Automatic annotation (TrEMBL):
One of its GO terms (cellular component) is plasma membrane. It is found in: Cell inner membrane. Residues 5-255 form the ABC transporter domain. This is ABC transporter ATP-binding protein. The keyword Nucleotide-binding applies. One of its GO terms (biological process) is peptide transport. InterPro entries: AAA+_ATPase (IPR003593), ABC_Ni/Peptide_Import (IPR050388), ABC_transporter-like_ATP-bd (IPR003439), ABC_transporter-like_CS (IPR017871), Oligopep_ABC_C (IPR013563), P-loop_NTPase (IPR027417). It is a peripheral membrane protein. CDD domains: ABC_NikE_OppD_transporters. Keywords: ATP-binding, Cell membrane, Membrane, Nucleotide-binding, Transport.
Length: 327
């Protein structure tokens, strides 16, 4: 089965006073039909920029400087904006962290949803309204016919995010990019939305890229996981394999810092140091200054992404084994 999304050697740079900063550097990933890919990393790792690049939403001073983004075999890099608009919202959709990025505060929900449908399909207003009501019901909003007449401010934060998800799913997109859409929600609402999104992907075959810093979310949602650090993917593979037996020290550090992994009453484990500035990355491996396994070789040349059996890949010259020691 050919992948729905295939990203190869993607590079994205932003112009700053200090010169060009490469926010994404050589990222490659694939997502198949019905598959959920968790794109994980700390703030500033480049995961959100990767998601925006897939959508064609990188604006000046940022630009894609290298690489390929293929959607259902069609190259998106360099595609005219008019053609991107025919895909965006219909075949490719995005859910943002803040639902008010999607929703217009001065328009009723029915106006926004009907407009989103009729922008891509020649259907009657009644047919569009019926579909909008079904979409709200599908994401768990009660009395959808009545709630269509509400304004965004009349919904709670969790309900607004459900509306944003419903809008993203109106056309049954082949690819959905979700940029930390449950971060600001309470745990109960978060769990409900995750279960609904997972079910929708399974039923419709939608490929999902879920951008997050929360490994607990990825553990219960994703099929595969790609871990980003300083603009690069440092580990990639099936979610169970990566979380149970990480190969890269950074992945191990992220897993170890999850509160549930720490003994009650003990200080939380954390990765020492700070994420490096993309404008001034250290030579060699970008993680070396924070890595307890780093040696002189790590500070000379950036390691390539090494593939191994089982669909695993990692970017480290001193990887961990299943026993948690250097290979």
């Amino acid at each position: 089965m050919s992948p729905v999304l295939e990203v190869r050697d993607l590079a994205v740079s932003f112009g700053t006073r200090e010169g060009a900063v490469r926010a994404v550097d050589g990222v490659s990933l694939t997502v198949k039909r019905g598959e959920v890919l968790g794109l994980v990393g700390e703030s500033g790792s480049g995961k959100s920029v990767t998601g925006l690049s897939i959508m064609g939403l990188i604006d000046a001073p940022g630009r894609i400087t290298a690489g390929s983004i293929k959607f259902e075999g069609r190259e998106l890099v360099g595609l005219p904006e008019k053609e991107l608009r025919t895909l965006r919202g219909r075949r490719i959709a995005m859910i943002f962290q803040d639902p008010m990025t999607t929703l217009n505060p001065v328009l009723r929900v029915d106006t926004q949803m009907i407009e989103a449908i009729r922008a891509h399909e020649a259907v009657s207003e009644k047919a569009a309204r019926d579909r909008a009501a079904r979409a709200l019901a599908r994401v768990g909003i009660p009395s959808p016919e009545e709630r269509l007449q509400s304004y965004p401010h009349q919904f709670s934060g969790g309900m607004r995010q459900r509306v944003a998800i419903a809008i993203a799913l109106l056309h049954g997109p082949a690819l959905l990019v979700a940029d930390e859409p449950t971060t600001a929600l309470d745990v109960t609402i978060q769990a409900q939305i995750l279960a609904e999104v997972q079910q929708l992907c399974a039923e419709t075959g939608t490929a999902l890229v879920w951008v997050t810093h929360d490994l607990a979310v990825v553990a219960g949602l994703a099929d595969r996981i790609a871990v980003m650090y300083a603009g690069r993917i440092v580990e990639d593979g099936p979610v169970d394999g990566v979380l149970d037996s990480p190969r890269h020290p950074y992945t191990a550090g992220l897993i170890g810092s999850v509160p549930s992994r720490n003994r009650r009453g003990s200080p939380l484990a954390q990765i020492p140091g700070m994420t490096p500035s993309l404008a001034n990355l250290p030579p060699g491996c970008a993680f070396a200054p924070r890595c307890p396994r780093a040696d002189a070789a790590c500070r000379i040349e950036a390691p390539p992404l090494l593939a191994e059996t089982g669909g695993r890949a990692f970017r480290c010259i001193h990887p961990l084994t299943a026993e948690g020691v250097a290979a």
